[in-house]
Amino acid sequence: MAPRPPLGAGFWALIGATFLGFLGIGTVLPLFGPHVRHDLGGSDQTVGLVIGIFSFVALASRFVSGPLADRRGRKITFLAGLISCAAAGVAYLAPLGLAGMYIGRSLQGFGEACLYTGAATWAVEVAGIRRSGQALGYVSSGIWGGISTGPALGQLLGSFERAALTQVIAAVAAFAILIWVPEEYKPAAHNGRRRWIPALLVPPGFAVGFVNVHYPVITGFLVLHLARFGNSGPAAFSAYALLILVSRFFLGGLPDRIHPAITYYGGLGAMALGLGVIALGPPPALAVVAAAVLGFGFSFPWSSTAAKVLQKIPSGERGSAVGVLSAFVDLFVGVSSFAAGAVANRFGYSAAFVVAALALVAAAAAGRFVFRADHSQDGIAQVDVADECLMG
Predict the structure, then answer these.
(1) CA-CA distance, 237 to 221, in Å (whole number)?
(2) Which residues contact 193 (CB under 8 A, 6 or more apart)?
(3) Structure pTM?
(4) What is the separation, in whole angstroms, between the first and last Cα of the chain?
């Protein structure tokens, strides 16, 4: 196999802009609650509503950002997301009280949906469909790096106003970077009625949805669960996040080089092992290793599934596909957040991790419909030819 040409400056500019966009989103997160509760006089319920409106708007916006990326272009979708995030920061800074928080979170939800859809589809276009796994891995690294670094930066800044201003600056900086990056994608004419969720996307949607059931369990209960077993929760979560970031950056291209089913099911196996060990309440050193194994495994199912899906469909439908798959993730994370809380409240923290591990069985079953052998390389070649026609 001939060596692949290196990814160009435009691709890395795209990844850098993705990092900046999500850095701004993450910066305000740790300061929301105290600002709404103490500075604006909101109740605890108000804090929950302000935080939660983001998820509902982001979920609905997936069905807007995907068609926008297909019909108007990846670049305009990404830029629209950055403009929306900058406007969210302005709303936070405006003297609007609680209304500014609701407006800002809504704008941020729409912006996040456009950022991810635009970044993912544009990166695949620039890297090429046969490097889609690698491209999605780098995009995920930019997202995860921004979301992980943002809260630490927000705490360092010390005030919600400074964090909100940083969100505006980060979005404007990303916009300034991307405005000079050319886009080769040429939207094709879309005739006929568009289906909101094509049948082709249902199995992969369920696959990535069940994979992400563990996420609210980890974010909500890992520290609480491990507090009784040596208090290794913070270190374990750091190991989990670090392995996701490193694996997606350095190993994101594996689904392109070996059959994506291998990386998908290998990732599920590592996740199940990590969740199982954590559920047992291990000593600190083993808990950190188990969380790292979980993060390593979680690095692969999304890129494996998305790469397989994007290879099956023409370029002009990839934005909608990414939007739908992301909507499945939002839906499953939201539902599993409530379910995990109910399970933990009634049966204990360990039971929540067991449920998350069982969800991987459903993810494995859904994967059988995603990685069926009847999709040959000829189909991928046909998509490549179609891409060349669409790209002119």
Answers:
(1) 10
(2) none
(3) 0.87
(4) 26
Position 194 scores a pLDDT of 65
Token pair belonging to 209: 């949805």
Q: Which domains does the chain have, with CATH numbers?
A: 1-187 (1.20.1250.20), 196-392 (1.20.1250.20)
DSSP-H helix ranges across the chain? 9-27, 29-34, 44-71, 74-93, 98-127, 132-157, 160-178, 202-211, 214-226, 233-250, 254-257, 260-279, 284-298, 301-312, 318-347, 349-370, 377-391
Q: What is the DSSP letter of 6?
A: P
CA distance 275 to 293: 9
Residues of the chain with pLDDT under 70: 1-4, 188-194, 373-392
Rounded (5°) CA angle 104-329-254: 115
pLDDT digits (tens, 9 = 90+) for 93-123: 999 999 999 999 999 999 999 999 999 999 9
* pLDDT per position as a tens digit, 30-57: 898 899 999 999 888 888 888 888 888 9
